[in-house]
Amino acid sequence: MRFSLSAMWKNKCPRCRQGQMFVEPFKFSDPLAMNKNCSVCNQAMEPEPGFYYGAMFLSYIISTFTLLPLALLLVFYFKWSVEAAMGIVILFGALFFFKILRGSRSLWIHMMVRYDKSYS
Ligand SMILES: [Zn+2]
Questions:
Q1: Number of folded domains in the chain?
Q2: How far does residue 42's CA lie from ligand 1's centre (Å)?
Q3: Which residue range forms the structural domain that includes residue 48?
Protein backbone atom coordinates (compact mmCIF):
# COMPACT_ATOMS: atom_id res chain seq x y z
CA MET A 1 0.00 0.00 0.00
CA ARG A 2 1.31 3.46 -0.83
CA PHE A 3 0.07 5.41 2.18
CA SER A 4 0.04 4.18 5.76
CA LEU A 5 -2.10 6.09 8.23
CA SER A 6 -0.52 4.09 11.05
CA ALA A 7 3.07 5.02 10.07
CA MET A 8 2.02 8.62 9.59
CA TRP A 9 0.28 8.75 12.99
CA LYS A 10 3.31 7.20 14.75
CA ASN A 11 5.75 9.63 12.98
CA LYS A 12 7.63 6.79 11.31
CA CYS A 13 9.90 7.24 8.31
CA PRO A 14 7.78 7.30 5.11
CA ARG A 15 10.20 5.12 3.12
CA CYS A 16 10.82 2.18 5.49
CA ARG A 17 8.07 2.84 8.10
CA GLN A 18 10.50 1.73 10.83
CA GLY A 19 12.82 4.62 11.72
CA GLN A 20 11.64 7.56 13.84
CA MET A 21 11.23 10.99 12.23
CA PHE A 22 11.63 13.00 15.43
CA VAL A 23 14.32 12.96 18.09
CA GLU A 24 13.22 10.95 21.12
CA PRO A 25 12.52 11.60 23.94
CA PHE A 26 10.24 14.58 23.31
CA LYS A 27 11.48 17.92 24.67
CA PHE A 28 9.16 20.90 25.17
CA SER A 29 12.05 23.27 24.44
CA ASP A 30 12.46 21.85 20.91
CA PRO A 31 9.27 20.02 19.84
CA LEU A 32 10.28 19.89 16.17
CA ALA A 33 13.75 18.38 16.64
CA MET A 34 14.07 15.88 13.80
CA ASN A 35 16.62 13.21 13.03
CA LYS A 36 18.74 14.27 10.05
CA ASN A 37 18.37 10.89 8.36
CA CYS A 38 16.38 7.74 9.02
CA SER A 39 18.35 5.26 11.16
CA VAL A 40 17.08 2.32 9.05
CA CYS A 41 17.01 3.44 5.40
CA ASN A 42 18.95 6.74 5.50
CA GLN A 43 16.02 8.74 4.04
CA ALA A 44 16.67 12.47 4.59
CA MET A 45 14.06 13.81 7.02
CA GLU A 46 14.35 17.31 5.54
CA PRO A 47 14.92 16.55 1.83
CA GLU A 48 15.43 20.22 0.91
CA PRO A 49 15.59 23.59 2.73
CA GLY A 50 12.11 24.85 3.58
CA PHE A 51 10.59 21.44 2.87
CA TYR A 52 8.11 21.71 5.74
CA TYR A 53 6.71 25.07 4.68
CA GLY A 54 3.69 23.25 3.23
CA ALA A 55 3.16 21.43 6.53
CA MET A 56 2.28 24.79 8.05
CA PHE A 57 -0.78 24.97 5.80
CA LEU A 58 -1.68 21.37 6.63
CA SER A 59 -1.57 22.16 10.33
CA TYR A 60 -3.86 25.15 9.74
CA ILE A 61 -6.30 23.02 7.72
CA ILE A 62 -6.27 20.18 10.29
CA SER A 63 -6.87 22.48 13.25
CA THR A 64 -9.61 24.41 11.44
CA PHE A 65 -11.47 21.32 10.27
CA THR A 66 -11.41 19.76 13.74
CA LEU A 67 -11.90 22.76 16.04
CA LEU A 68 -14.44 24.75 14.01
CA PRO A 69 -17.01 21.92 13.80
CA LEU A 70 -16.54 21.38 17.55
CA ALA A 71 -17.29 25.05 18.26
CA LEU A 72 -20.28 25.08 15.89
CA LEU A 73 -21.64 21.87 17.45
CA LEU A 74 -21.37 23.27 20.98
CA VAL A 75 -22.96 26.61 20.11
CA PHE A 76 -25.72 25.59 17.68
CA TYR A 77 -26.61 22.06 18.81
CA PHE A 78 -25.89 22.04 22.53
CA LYS A 79 -26.79 25.76 22.89
CA TRP A 80 -23.60 26.62 24.81
CA SER A 81 -22.56 30.24 25.07
CA VAL A 82 -19.89 31.38 22.58
CA GLU A 83 -17.47 32.08 25.48
CA ALA A 84 -17.82 28.54 26.88
CA ALA A 85 -17.42 27.00 23.42
CA MET A 86 -14.27 29.10 22.81
CA GLY A 87 -12.90 27.94 26.16
CA ILE A 88 -13.32 24.29 25.10
CA VAL A 89 -11.84 25.01 21.65
CA ILE A 90 -8.80 26.70 23.22
CA LEU A 91 -8.41 23.78 25.65
CA PHE A 92 -8.54 21.22 22.81
CA GLY A 93 -6.18 23.37 20.72
CA ALA A 94 -3.69 23.44 23.59
CA LEU A 95 -4.02 19.70 24.33
CA PHE A 96 -3.43 18.64 20.72
CA PHE A 97 -0.99 21.41 19.76
CA PHE A 98 2.14 19.24 19.64
CA LYS A 99 0.34 16.32 18.00
CA ILE A 100 -0.94 18.59 15.20
CA LEU A 101 2.44 20.32 14.91
CA ARG A 102 4.35 17.08 14.44
CA GLY A 103 1.49 15.27 12.69
CA SER A 104 1.32 17.85 9.91
CA ARG A 105 5.05 17.41 9.23
CA SER A 106 4.61 13.66 9.25
CA LEU A 107 1.62 13.86 6.87
CA TRP A 108 3.56 16.21 4.57
CA ILE A 109 6.59 13.93 4.20
CA HIS A 110 4.33 10.87 3.83
CA MET A 111 2.61 12.61 0.93
CA MET A 112 5.95 13.35 -0.76
CA VAL A 113 8.10 10.24 -0.15
CA ARG A 114 7.13 6.79 -1.46
CA TYR A 115 7.12 3.63 0.63
CA ASP A 116 9.85 1.16 -0.35
CA LYS A 117 8.76 -2.48 0.05
CA SER A 118 12.35 -3.76 0.21
CA TYR A 119 12.64 -2.52 3.82
CA SER A 120 9.66 -4.52 5.12
ZN1 LIG B 1 13.50 4.93 6.89
A1: 1
A2: 6
A3: 5-119
